[in-house]
Every structure is written in C-alpha cells, then in structure tokens.
Amino acid sequence: RKEVEQDPGPFNVPEGATVAFNCTYSNSASQSFFWYRQDCRKEPKLLMSVYSSGNEDGRFTAQLNRASQYISLLIRDSKLSDSATYLCVVNDEPGNTGKLIFGQGTTLQVKP
Amino acid sequence: DVKVTQSSRYLVKRTGEKVFLECVQDMDHENMFWYRQDPGLGLRLIYFSYDVKMKEKGDIPEGYSVSREKKERFSLILESASTNQTSMYLCASSSITRGVGKNIQYFGAGTRLSVL
Q1: Is B42's CB within 8 Å of A103's CB?
Q2: What is the pLDDT along chain B (116 residues), one digit of tens a residue?
C-alpha cells in the first residue's frame, strides 16, 4: 500500500465549478500535512498547510480527518488558472529531518 | 522570499560521464533534499541532508551520491550517468524551526537532465 494515495484524475471541470480532492495516508502517527500545487514543467509550490481544525484560504479549503486518515482539498468557483497538479504531502518523521512523503498528484483541468 | 537555486535548467550528458547538479538556498535552512520526478512515478527522494556533512539515503539512492560541505549548498553527483537517469531533478530545502513554517519544503526550478 502506498504511504500517500491520491486519485490521479484528470478532473475536467467547467469554470465556476466546485471540485474536491481526497488523499489517504497510511501512517496514523503522521504529524504534518500539506497541499502543494505543481504547474506543468514547473516545481511544486506550497498551496496550504492542513490543520486539524480545517483551514480556508480564499476559494480553497483544506480538511484533515485523523480518524479516517484522509485529507481533502476543496476548490470553489474554479478558475482557468487553477489548472495544475495538486500534491498531497505528509510528514511523519518523528525527528527533525523534515522528510516529506508526496502523493503522485491529482490533475485538474478547468475548461472555459 | 525563500530562494532555492539550481545551477542548470537543462543538461545533456553522455552515458558514463560524471555529472554534478548543484543546489544553493539562501534561507539558512538545515534540511536539504534531492528528488527526481518521472511521469507516472511522482516525486522520489534520492538523498537528503539535515546538517552540514550529514547525509541520509532516500528511497532511490543507487547510482547517486551527495555532498554537503556548506550549509547553503547541496550537490547531487551521478558517478557514471546512465540513460535511466534521464529525468527532472528537483532540489528542496526546509527549516526545523518550530512553528507554522516547520518542514515546509521550498523547491528549486528543477534541472531537466538528458543522458544520451
């Protein structure tokens, strides 16, 4: 079983749609959670951290469910510029090495 | 702004050549990482370092070595390049400082290496 699993998609949605991505992780002791965004042929960039209480940044909402070991990302009112690959990322190292585990990513294509 | 700089965006080498990929970060981060990214396989960790002169193997270290002589610089070395090492190579750095910024990795723009 992969440590971090995501549906690779692609998700094809019209502009203005609401889309949700889910991600599951295998280590119940995982401590930190993130969503990264990667544009085509570019490097991954942090989109948002995911906190236990859930958090929102504009049109983006991230949720964490520790009991079920999944993380979600909700994008409201999709824009063409949201087209990218979204990476679910988990840190479960007990020490300070900062090692992260990346999911393979979910591809989103927003159409006019 | 955090800046992670990789020395080359594109590199073409021949089989058997020794290849050096350089990465420099300007945020005094303790941790540095080298990944490769291939279609369908996602990001795979090659090596990482949590301090000067310290290194740890990642998931796919075979055929690679690293060097961290200074805190800001982390080099990836392909001792004898092979065609299956053709890939996008990404360097990242992060801080161990407590707080909301802890463990967030910042990436360089990547080096697309082709081995012929």
Answers
A1: yes
A2: 779 999 999 999 999 999 999 999 999 999 999 999 998 888 999 999 999 999 999 999 999 999 999 999 999 999 999 999 999 999 999 988 766 567 889 999 999 999 99
**B45 part of contact set with chain A, CB < 8 Å:** yes
Q: Which residue in A has a C-alpha nearest to residue B47's C-alpha? A: A99
Q: What is the pLDDT of residues A34-76, one digit of tens each?
A: 999 999 999 999 999 998 888 999 999 999 999 999 999 999 9
Q: Which residues of B54-78 are buried (b: 16+ CB within 10 A; e: fewer)?
A: ebeebeeeeebebbbeebbebbbeb
In the three-class reduction of DSSP (H, G, I as helix; E, B as strand; rest coil), residue B21 is classed as strand
**Cα–Cα distance for residue pair A37/A88, rounded to 1 Å:** 9
Q: Does A46 touch chain B (CB under 8 A)?
A: yes
Nearest to A43 among B94, B100, B109 (CB): B109
